Amino acid sequence: MIADDVLDWMIGIPTPRFVADHYERAPLVHTRGGDGRFDALLTLTRLNDRIAELDLRAGMIELANAQSPIPRSDYEQGDFVDRVAVARGYRQGATIVFNQLQHSDRRMAAFCRQLERVFSCHIQTNTYLTPPAEQGFRTHYDSHDVFILQVAGSKNWRLYGDPEDSPFRGERFQGMHRPAGEPVLEFTLNPGDCAYIPRGYYHDAVNVGSVPSLHITVGLIVRTWADLMLEAVSQVCVADPNFRRALPPGYADPSADRTALAATFDRLAATLAGQVKLEPAIDTIAEAFIRSREPDLTGALVDSHIDPQGTYAARTSLHTITETDTEVRVLAPGCEFKFGRAPLSLITRILDGTPFRVADLDHSEALDVLGRMMAAGLIERRDGKVG
To answer: Does residue 304 register a pLDDT over 90?
Structure first.
């Protein structure tokens, strides 16, 4: 069972302490887990089932070996993954990488939603199954922070000094353009253990046990201050026609006089400094993030009939509620609702997380609001008494 404080459950410390002492700063290793602690997310048997049952399209699975690159043509046939080739490659020492398992596994999806509420960022998972005594990847760094959840087996990790300073999102490691520093941290993760590695830290890992190593790498795909500043600048540029005017003819000529260009640039830069605003920019980014999240439709069809005597409650999910003179607007993962007749008090009561009976809402719009929210996965049926 995953605890409400998902970071405490993973790494043994509360969220505020993690953010203050480690987030984007320093690695953290939690080696007091216990065999089976991550079985609520995944087991080797369940991973085997996913590989056997799912419609595996190209890109969902990769094979990797630190000693020799494995071309996709060895295990992909057109748009599909060749399962037999994957199993054969694994027997020959390759690591199986199952990319983005949260898109096809309900437990992993629910886990990612919990972390998304903590970090307000996209959470992705890559799952690694490495044969005994094998290594999937050479020393490298990631362009995003990661948590390593060791599910089965044992893997030895080495982290190196002199990390890259906050590599940008989407930057792919292209080989060691400079040597990694000296090893500064070495540890072995056993079942139930977890580690946090900030982006930019060179690292490598090898299976040191006599059984397969299965771990989940949880990646934090964050928005940065650069994203926020670019959004704020773009809003000013869209609103002010001076920014939309063309650059002067001939500006690309190496012999062009850039004096006038510099004067206009400085004037526009000063305009930006006086007009960029935090609130509209952060609202735009936050709404875009909420819109892009996957809704939780568990039970949405089974419980689609609203029982007036039934007990319901809002799921813990990202959402915003705003009111205008004519309507109440609810924005949530995968949906946007506009209620013209339902009052703000009714919407707020339904979404505050406290269990309720439909009969107690006492409003003519209650059934309509509940039905629409149930279909979007915001509300779920609850058994038992109202708390």
So the answer is: no
pLDDT at residue 177 above 80?
no
Give the type of residue at 264: T
Contact residues for 289 (Cβ-Cβ < 8 A; gap 6+) = 120, 121, 122, 223, 318
Q: What is the pLDDT of residue 35?
A: 80
Residue 116: phi and psi, rounded to 5, are: -65, -35
Mark whether 231 and 105 lie in a shared domain: no
259 and 332 co-located in one domain: no
Query: Is 387 a member of any domain?
Result: no
**What is the crossing angle of helices 44-53 and 83-91, to 10°?**
140
Asked, for residue 299, whether it belongs to a domain, the answer is no
Cβ neighbours of 336 (radius 10 Å): 13
Give the residue numbers spanning the domain of 183.
6-221
Q: Give which of 67, 33, 85, 225 is closest to 136, Cα–Cα.
A: 67
Nearest 5°: phi and psi at 279? -55, -55
State how many domains the chain has. Answer: 3
pLDDT for residue 169 is more than 80:
no
Mean pLDDT of all residues in the chain?
92
In this structure, of 49-58, 79-88, 161-170, 371-380, the range with the lowest mean pLDDT score is: 161-170
Write down the residue that tokens 């029982």 correspond to. 307
**Structure token pair of residue 115:** 């972390």
Residue 305: inside a domain, yes or no? no
Share of the chain above pLDDT 70, in %: 96
Phi-psi region of 384 (alpha: psi -120 to 50; beta: other; left: phi over 0): left
CATH of the domain at 73: 2.60.120.650
DSSP-derived 3-state class of residue 287: helix
Residue 296 lies in a domain: no
Q: Of 221, 250, 275, which closes a domain?
A: 221
Cα–Cα distance between 323 and 330 in angstroms, integer?
A: 9
Q: Is 79 exposed, middle or buried (0-12, 13-18, 19+ CB in 10 A)?
A: exposed
CB atoms within 10 A of CB 150: 24
Residue 187 backbone dihedrals phi, psi, to 5 degrees: -155, 160
Asked whether residue 45 falls in the same domain as residue 164, the answer is yes
pTM of the model: 0.90
